[in-house]
Write a structure and sequence with these properties.
- This protein is mainly α and 150 residues long.
- The protein is built from eight helices and no strands.
- It has two domains: 63 residues; 75 residues, Arc Repressor Mutant, subunit A (Orthogonal Bundle).
- α1 crosses α3 and α4 packs across α6.
Length: 150
Amino acid sequence: MHMEIERYIIAFTQNNVCFLSEVNDVINYININYMKPITLDLLARINCTCKSTLQRKFHDATGRSPMQYLKVLRMNLAAEMLMSSKKSVVEIAIDVGYNSISSFNRHFLNEFYTTPTKWRQQARAENIFSNGKNVSKSSQPQCLQCVVDK
């Protein structure tokens, strides 16, 4: 039984590596050009395949469609920029490839369950901006009197 599981894991891993190699050019293109308009037609041409084949291969390799991958990448980059920069929400939306602030806000809300502005406010309230490091209030040293009172 143990050998069967081991063979399955090895086969599964080899298949995923194979799937990843089949869409690696598309993943690299998205990672480099996320701020530009990207369509499924363009990605299929890059991969020299039809759209349905690309979507199947991409999903097999990543668990997402190419456009879902692009959206998640953009949202994660936007969240990072909201925490680490002083750019406006509109500037960040444009920087990560959105030309519509309403689309950006809708996608951000769907991904993080809050608006970009509230995300930034919460990050500032939790003191995530401390010297560019992720430092929450609970991890900051307490004053001597606070420690003595406990």
